[in-house]
Design a protein that fits this description.
This protein is mainly β. It is built from no helices and ten strands.
């Protein structure tokens, strides 16, 4: 059973940057597509970025983060990253990683707060 452990969140000012990391267990990591999702309290969890597996590595972003966020992966470390630049207050949320399409296994997430 896969486990995801997210880290790297925190408080950032508008226009600032954060880099999130997610370490995953399991031997199938390298062949699976992965996604970063976020959830604001009271709203549905949404996909913000995804990256292909199996050596493809193609990426796709939600319109709201396109040009500001970059997803990447290191299969040797079973880790996926989300570089977030030009942060906006509306990026405030709990961020999670999971497979894409999502599985039922969620980590604890990491809180990102963008505020001056």
């Amino acid at each position: 059973q896969v486990q995801f452990v997210e880290s790297g969140g925190g408080l950032a000012q508008p226009g600032g940057s954060l880099r999130l990391s997610c370490a995953a267990s399991g031997s199938a990591f390298s062949i699976r597509a992965l996604g970063w999702y976020r959830q604001v309290s009271g709203k549905q969890r949404e996909l913000v970025a995804r990256i292909g597996g199996g050596g493809g590595g193609s990426t796709n972003y939600a319109d709201s983060v396109k040009g500001r966020f970059t997803i990447s992966r290191d299969n040797a470390k079973n880790t996926v990253y989300l570089q977030m630049n030009s942060l906006k207050p509306e990026d405030t949320a709990v961020y999670y990683c999971n497979y894409f399409p999502r599985s039922s296994q969620w980590g604890q997430g990491t809180q990102v707060t963008v505020s001056s």
